[in-house]
Amino acid sequence: MLRYVLRRVMLVVPTFLGVTLLSFTLIHLVPGDPIEARVGERGIAPERLAALRHEFGYDQPIWQQFLDYLWQVLHGDLGVSLVTHRGVWAEFLMLFPATIELALCAISFAVLIGVPLGMIAGLRRGTAFDFGLIGVSVTGASMPIFWWGLMMILIFSVGLGWTPVSGRISDLFFIEPWSGFMTIDCWWAEDDGACRSTWSHLILPTIVLGTIPLANFARMTRSAMLEVLGEDYIRTARAKGLGSLRINVVHALRNALIPVVTVIGLSIGGLLGGAILTETIFAWPGIGHWIIESIQGRDYPVLQGGTLLVAVIVISVNLGVDMLYSVLNPRIRR
Amino acid sequence: MPSQLAIFWRSFAENRGAVFGLGLMLLLILVAALADVMSLHGPIEQFRDNFLTPPVWEEGGTWRFPLGTDDVGRDMLSRLIHGARLSLMIGFTLVAVALTVGTSLGLTAAFVGGTVDVLIMRLIDVILVFPSLLLAIVVVAIIGPGLFNAMIAVAVVTLPGYVRLARASALVELNRDYVTATRAMGASMRRLMFDTVLPNCMAPLIVHATLGFSTAVLDAAALGFLGLGAQPPTPEWGTMLSSSLQYYQRAWWVLAFPGFAILVTVLAFNLFGDGLRDALDPKLKR
Q: For a FRET experiment, which of A110, A154, B74, B161 has its CA 20 to 30 Å from that of A70?
């Protein structure tokens, strides 16, 4: 097991180097350099431009810049935002909990609803419920979530007035950020009104971000169930006279969940992509919103650092999923 | 003796969803082809005395604008119809580019092997680490917004699937006897790659391309929505959504219809692609 873990971790190193090189190269494809691009038409005194270039290191040869960048990244220094002049890493740490909170809610929503629905559909193959779920899940998987979010706002926030339109919490409340997770901070502060406000702000973004994963998990669980139900050990369990609940849950679902766990893990990348759209629609102050703002403000250090950090998150999650998979399915370890 | 096509059709037609998807797809292609004849008005024609006219079934609606007008008095239905043409064109172009480039790269990796293979596949692995929408956004942010640049960005992020699939299928075929025989007869590398091996790798690639079509349309629309894709007044569905955002409280129809059109298009190709996969891949058959 240890050997497998070590080998798998070693494989991450070249990927990380490649990701750093790619995000570095992309940003350097900007015509001129980031300083010039940001100054734009306003113009700037040549001495000031030279000073700024020197300050951000853009006067060095390109390979030197990359090595410097890599060195800095390895020391946790991702540069400074050209707009706010705060460290990129510090800004990321401030905004990341909001994205994690939303992503965790969306994943839980998708798993808690998608897996049971998929399981029932698999057990009742060919019934109206099964066909209904297939139809709904194909539709869900095809959903343009930016539109879906707007429709939800139109119906539930504007039309019915049930949920707030945007943000994480109502302006009426101020909660001292402690963990960065609004739900925990409110609970910690023992402020019931703020808690209610936080949860009501979470509902729509959770549903919107969770829709595509929900559809995928339901489809995946259904087909995994169908496959498992045809196995010999299910027939044996039936022949032994075990109760159907025990067969379906203990024998079938547990084995069907192995591929589903992988799909859940692999959906994290897509979830972060979806978070960009969801956070934009709901003005959710997370990293997706931050990256879009960095594009509008031509804040290249933030764009570069943010992209790299998202890639690192995906690499880590994939690594974690592989580890978990090797625990669930020891055959993979070889 | 039924023909190959008849066998394929029989197993495809078993899947009612797939047939429905095919129907929707043909309808969309028809609408796109006949856009100029079908639309009542030009896609960017403005009617100055008809701002935000509601659809015909709502109070104040008129048959002149069956689905209402937008904030500068353009007919929604005409814009949606022209949008169908644009979206299908975006989808077909993207899939054609990604399929050609991706397959060539994948076959090259499989045939040449060694360092070339490692380099190509490492690059693909790195691209795959980034969430596809994020990478597309970064590419557009760098080369500048616009429909053409957005298409380049989406082509780049959809490439990995084709490369991996082409390489994997080619590696399987390379060990077959017919390839060894052709090689022994002295066929050139190019002939071996494109005439001998490629036709036998096409089935999974076609399925992937069909499903990739919906991803392409969806990503291009998302970029348009974020203001990074097609620019106004182009009747691109995602762009239409973003430019009518500020009117959504007053006029639900400017928001509801373009997104619904995206959903229907993506759904049609997903249903068709799923059906195609089940019909072409006998291993998955019940």
A: B161
Average pLDDT of the residues in B35-48: 80
User: Among all residues of chain A, which has the CA nearest to that of B141?
Assistant: A295
Computed over every residue of chain B, the mean pLDDT equals: 86
Query: Does A197 have pLDDT greater than 60?
Result: yes
Q: Is the pTM of this model over 0.90?
A: no
**Count of CB atoms situated within 10 Å of the CB of B180:** 11
B126, A22 in Cβ contact below 8 A? yes
Q: Is the pLDDT of residue B154 over 80?
A: yes
Is A251:A237 a contact under the CB 8 Å cutoff?
yes
The mean pLDDT of A61-74, rounded to a whole number, is: 84
Q: Which two tokens stand for residue B199?
A: 């036709």
Residue B10 lies in a domain: no
Give yes or no for residue B1 having a pLDDT over 60.
no
Has residue B7 been placed in a domain?
A: no
* Residues of B with Cβ-Cβ distance to A15 under 8 angstroms: 125-126, 129
Contacts by B138-142 with C-beta closer than 8 Å and gap 24+?
A: B138/A23, B138/A26, B138/A303, B138/A307, B139/A26, B140/B223, B140/B228, B140/B229, B141/A295, B141/A303, B141/B228, B142/A26, B142/A27, B142/A29, B142/A30
**Cα separations (Å) of B231 from A79, B226, B243?**
32, 10, 9
Residue B173 domain-assigned (yes or no): yes
Total domains in chain B come to 1
Per the domain annotation, does B72 fall within a domain? yes
**Residue range of the domain that includes B269:** 28-284
Taking CA–CA distances from A276, the nearest residue in chain B reads B134
Predicted confidence at residue B285, as pLDDT, reads 45
Chain B: give the shortest CA distance to residue A186, in Å.
Answer: 31
CATH number for the domain including B59?
1.10.3720.10
Q: How many CB pairs under 8 A join A and B?
A: 124
